[in-house]
Amino acid sequence: MRKRIDLVHDQVEQALLNEVETLRNCQDRLKKMHEQSVAQLRNNRASQHELERDLKSKESALGIDNMCHQLNNFSRGINYYGGIDKFDPTNRIIQRSQNERSKSQQLRSDIDNLINACANEIWNAWNATNNGLTRRSSETLEAKSKLQMHLHKVQQEIFDVEKNMELLRKAIMDKSNPMKVAQTRLEARTHRRDIELCRDDAQERLVKEVQDIGNSIEYLHRKLLEAEAQHQQLLKTKANLESDLQVKVNSLFIDREKCLGMRRSFPITATIKY
């Protein structure tokens, strides 16, 4: 999953949510159409059953009518019969069959239109998500390149600061022996006797030399502290850049490899065959 600054509700996530909503909406509409199809199929089978039963009745009636056609005044078995009603439901059955066929034809047309409409809606949502992922990947790749460039500059600055720190430490070490010499000279001159133990020109110069070397060492220590503080800040910046770079690499892998990788082909077809 995305991390830290990239874990945001961006346009890609909005497109994905819209795509999910579109898919669910299409599923609901297709389920309703499926229920209508099942009901219509049930009616068609009922009408077919009535037609088949009526056809058998017609075949039986045809045999009876042939027998009746052969009856005459001299035929056996003729007699009086009362309470005979005439009822022929054939027209009603045929009318129902025609109605069901008409409904089925309209339903097939509605199904075709619905599937094509859903396919177009899903395609548009799918394409919008892919475009969003592509744009997001390009933006992430650009940000990754900028971070890498900035990181390279910071690493170079760290190298320069570390080199400067080494030079400062060496300069401080180089001041050590001259300071020892000057202080040793001062200490040795304290052993002069009587009137020779005075603050002469040589003494003044030695004192000034010690002060100058001390000031120089203090200045170098101050610069070293500043360089060390700068070095720590650069290391912190480097760590932040590396962390941000890792986030971008992770996000780029998710968007470009995992998401776009599984969305290279549209996973639906609107082709319908009967």
From TrEMBL:
Pfam families: Tektin (PF03148). One of its GO terms (cellular component) is microtubule cytoskeleton. GO terms for biological process: cilium assembly; cilium movement involved in cell motility. The keyword Cytoplasm applies. Keywords: Cell projection, Cilium, Cytoplasm, Flagellum. Its main location: cytoplasm. It is found in: Cytoplasm, Cytoskeleton, Cilium axoneme. It comes from the Eukaryota. The keyword Cytoplasm applies. Belongs to the tektin family. This is Tektin. It comes from Timema genevievae (Walking stick). The lineage of its organism: Eukaryota, Metazoa, Ecdysozoa, Arthropoda, Hexapoda.
